[in-house]
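Q: What residues go here?
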């Protein structure tokens, strides 16, 4: 049996992690500034849409802090109790942030429904000025994190921020309508649209986080193609106990038992293992590979044997 770690654990990955940490710290400070401005502006203007945006911004600040902490924690070295390290800290953070977004969406929607039945006056000038600042800063934060969006934890934080930018844009539209027509019902209507947008993005992150925690095959990897590719390597007779999962959103792992023809030398066995590792890394982006070599006489459950005619396609 042999373990292999892909190049993502090297210097390039470490550099990207440090960049992500710096971006998150900068985003956290800017998000806090927007939060203060929207709370003051929302109370001053009596705008539910702006206060809803401020509540969303509060979750942004919390989400960015959790994301920063998770990125930092994920770099902690493995221990005897945590042999894979703390990579899934980031996934737990992403799931937590997504759940908080869903709660926020429900709260915003409930208050918006109340205001639909009991409209309240809104100061459109203050609303517009505050929301415009929110759009500019949130777009700047989101743009700064775009290169790290392959990381599910960073993506959940980025969705928080970009969702708030979209919400602020909706608030601006509502402010313009109120200013020109006096129709204050547009404020709770936009709040409901904000809540639906927030909930949709949160659901996607929740789903992706749960797939990682359930050790599902990564969406970017086709299980049957991996199995067929391994079985096509000369010298490999069959395979079984093939498992493909994610340690985090951008770190994939695989373990497999391969049955080889006849009695091979240690050197030949080593070459086969290297071929499987190279195939998994270069073709499928799987960086941590465990291969166990077996001879045909080794005991194993026939039900675990990979059959080419079995339907292993993703449903």
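A:
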């Amino acid at each position: 049996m042999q373990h292999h770690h892909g190049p993502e654990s090297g210097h390039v990955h470490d550099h990207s992690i440090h960049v992500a940490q710096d971006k998150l710290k900068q985003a956290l400070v800017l998000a806090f500034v927007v939060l203060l401005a929207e709370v003051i502006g929302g109370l001053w203007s009596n705008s539910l849409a702006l206060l809803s945006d401020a509540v969303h911004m509060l979750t942004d600040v919390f989400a960015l802090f959790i994301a920063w902490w998770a990125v930092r924690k994920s770099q902690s070295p493995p221990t005897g109790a945590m042999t894979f390290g703390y990579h899934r800290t980031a996934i737990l953070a992403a799931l937590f942030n997504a759940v908080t977004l869903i709660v926020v969406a429900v709260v915003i929607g409930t208050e918006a429904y109340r205001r639909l039945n009991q409209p309240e006056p809104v100061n459109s000038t203050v609303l517009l000025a505050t929301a415009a600042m929110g759009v500019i800063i949130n777009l700047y934060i989101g743009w700064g994190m775009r290169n790290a969006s392959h990381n599910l934890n960073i993506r959940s934080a980025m969705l928080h921020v970009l969702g708030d930018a979209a919400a602020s844009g909706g608030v601006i539209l509502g402010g313009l309508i109120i200013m020109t027509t006096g129709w204050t019902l547009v404020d709770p209507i936009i709040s409901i649209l904000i809540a639906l947008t927030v909930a949709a993005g949160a659901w996607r992150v929740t789903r992706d986080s749960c797939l990682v925690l359930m050790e599902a095959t990564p969406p970017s990897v086709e299980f049957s193609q991996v199995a067929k590719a391994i079985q096509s390597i000369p010298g490999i007779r069959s395979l079984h106990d093939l498992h493909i999962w994610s340690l985090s959103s951008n770190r994939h792992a695989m373990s497999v038992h391969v049955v080889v023809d006849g009695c091979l030398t240690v050197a030949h066995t080593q070459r086969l293992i290297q071929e499987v590792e190279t195939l998994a890394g270069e073709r499928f982006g799987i960086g941590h590979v465990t291969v166990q070599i077996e001879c045909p006489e080794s005991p194993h459950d026939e039900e675990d044997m990979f059959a080419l005619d079995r339907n292993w396609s993703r449903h």
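A: Context that may help when evaluating the design: The chain has a mean pLDDT of 77. The CA atoms of residues 167 and 194 lie 5 Å apart.
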